[in-house]
Amino acid sequence: MITATILTIGDEILIGQITDTNSAFLARALNKIGIKVIHMASCSDSKSDILGTLKRCLRHSEIVITTGGLGPTKDDITKNVLMTLSLSGKWVRSQKQYNIIKNILQARGIQMLDINRQQAYVPENCTVIPNRIGTAPIMQFHFPKERFGKDNLLFSMPGVPFETEFATEDVIRAIQAHYRLDKIFHRTICTFGIAESVLSKKIESWEDSLPANLHLAYLPNPILGVRLRLSIYGIGEKEGKEELDKYASSLKAILGDAVYGEGETNPQTVAGELLLERDATISTAESCTGGYLAHLLTEIPGSSRYFWGSVVSYDNSVKINTLGVSPNTVKKYGVVSRECVKEMAEGVRKKLGTTYSISTSGIAGPTGATPGKPVGTLWMAASGPKGTVTATIVSKSTRKINIERFAASALDLFRKSLLAGKI
Amino acid sequence: MITATILTIGDEILIGQITDTNSAFLARALNKIGIKVIHMASCSDSKSDILGTLKRCLRHSEIVITTGGLGPTKDDITKNVLMTLSLSGKWVRSQKQYNIIKNILQARGIQMLDINRQQAYVPENCTVIPNRIGTAPIMQFHFPKERFGKDNLLFSMPGVPFETEFATEDVIRAIQAHYRLDKIFHRTICTFGIAESVLSKKIESWEDSLPANLHLAYLPNPILGVRLRLSIYGIGEKEGKEELDKYASSLKAILGDAVYGEGETNPQTVAGELLLERDATISTAESCTGGYLAHLLTEIPGSSRYFWGSVVSYDNSVKINTLGVSPNTVKKYGVVSRECVKEMAEGVRKKLGTTYSISTSGIAGPTGATPGKPVGTLWMAASGPKGTVTATIVSKSTRKINIERFAASALDLFRKSLLAGKI
């Protein structure tokens, strides 16, 4: 099996100023084509440190991907280290990258300086993968087995997450072109609201029936639920996809409406798709989620086509005056109640004139428990032309995670209620 | 200088399922007491891998901190590896951790099983730092110079970020008790709205005046602005603090209202403090921030004392019908305009009956530009009993970062306008 090491370069990582998200992103991309990441590491912007770490990594795994240390300023020295490591005799200019740099600076109204020009120069022994959205090119080096004991590919990528993510596809393609990798095909089924242990019990006999070349991975996420990834090896594309279709279908039949989507999706994306399909609109009425539910819906580009707005009613006066919740309901049942979220959802739907609505009211914590309502209690409702559905959960975590879980749970209630024809 | 390496253990890191936030958190805490983190690494849940990596780390730096691999299930083997590495003869039970485990399980209504009991057992050569909020204890090992060439401390911490963060203070205290560290004192000044390059120009002569034992670090953050950390070494506590006070005061005098706070704060925390001091309330009217501004304000525990609510008016009908923006304004100036955000802020303040209000309207992207209003344009307003202040910025980033910057900028406009007596 071809293995990889991911190395992030930069003092800002080691002092904790930046949380490294590139490594996880790259690891997922490598994992998907059947390459095992065996190590991740971070080192400082020091020549000896980068060089030593790179050599160690190249001896341990075929593929090494570095991110960072490619900026135009003096403290970024990765390229100089690669010049040494690759035994390149001279610097050569990548005309493609040079043109990109020129265009980027022009668009920003900045004059091109020597330090910008230098970004287009690379060690001659490398292959350039142009960075289409940034100034630092991606450099690809090949080291034959004689150098470090393995048929190595080394990629140097920029540190800006946006640029790294954008260029990952090109790097993956270069890896696939170089190594003879086992063909591998995936299907990822996203579930919500079932704990990992319960899920594994539920699909036990299905899992036992899987053929030897079909692998199941549990990918739990504290907010988004458990994703189940099916991977099939050593088979042609057509047959592989057919096999995956077959087992994905039987899996989905067992799990029913706990499955909310496939691949890299999330509850807000699915909610948006359901609304677009129906040419429908939505609004939210939020107490404990404090605007986070609206934020999730609006983080999707184009969400203005279906999301009309939200009334965040943190104070009871807003629930009563703006959403039309009855003061009696508040008095009799409290605001964290089935009755209150029902009136909130129906109130915002009417007020904003949307097809559907979602509401939340709960206790995010860390304090605020009342008798019978522990911290982490959520009441939620989804409402539409056919009626209103309510539900409750208890999330035992931090305030931050409780809020995120509350919002995801409310979106899931909306999806289930809509697909069941209840709202 | 005492150096440290941080090692995260777990397959879930290497497949990219989890983004490691523990390392950055620990690095910041170590950095603050003058310990340099020279490497970070991640390895798999394999005995030989953990053992090999640990030995290498211990030879390179005095302090090694691991996180993860301490769960009760079979795949978590860190503790067994530490048994081998520490040459401990036997397992001993930590009575303190045992009691904590018992209480945690009891609170969750779960019966204590053998795998839970085992979590309280540790190699006899370690010192236990009880994990007060989780079941896996923190283990501290001391290896004299004879073992790995350095006077080593090794800490094994749980992988759950919440637990790691909670226990970090105890680990830092143990490190300070063991090594003779140079005393180091800090002051961190948080600025908003000035680019790093402009900032460094502005404080150039002040920076040149700093004594040799006073170090300035720039800590830029794409959302929260640049924090300036002053650190003073080799001086007593009283004198050190006096020196810091002196230089922090002169720095703040130069930067004026660009300084929004000190230490680990952020614009929403500062806004909350200003409101509590004045016994005042606030509401928001949001278009492009889509609820994110309300979310920031409500992520602070206790925010219900001053945050009344928000109207997220994504659709123009909500701006007009719920916030009372004049249809003429929308027609004449568009919704991304000074006039519109002014009416939004004044509308929500009146409607929700709060002392102050903040509003946003802009183009988060990736599309939506109109003539004269590029993607990333934000108009914002802050309103109060003394009047309404408006402002505009252009943020050139992704949709996600634009939204986050918009919200932080609006909070900053509120702070500045309030302190200037304009609202």
Description of the structure:
The structure is a homodimer. In chain A, helix 2 runs parallel beside helix 8, helix 3 crosses helix 4 and helix 12 packs parallel to helix 17. The first copy, chain A, is of the alpha/beta class. Chain A is globular. In chain A, the strands form four sheets. In chain A, strands 2-1-3-8-7-6 form a six-stranded mixed beta sheet, with helices on both faces. In chain A, strands 14-13-15-16-17 form a five-stranded mixed beta sheet, with helices on both faces. A four-stranded antiparallel beta sheet of chain A has the order 10-11-9-12, covered by helices on one side. The first copy, chain A, contains 17 helices and 17 strands. The two termini of chain A are about 50 Å apart. The first copy, chain A, has three domains: about 180 residues, Molybdenum Cofactor Biosythetic Enzyme, Chain A (3-Layer(aba) Sandwich); about 80 residues, Alpha-Beta Plaits (2-Layer Sandwich); about 150 residues, CinA-like (Maf protein, Alpha-Beta Complex). The longest helix of chain A has 21 residues. At the A-B interface, helix 2, strand 2, strand 10, helix 13 and strand 14 of A face helix 2, strand 2, helix 13, strand 14 and helix 17 of B.
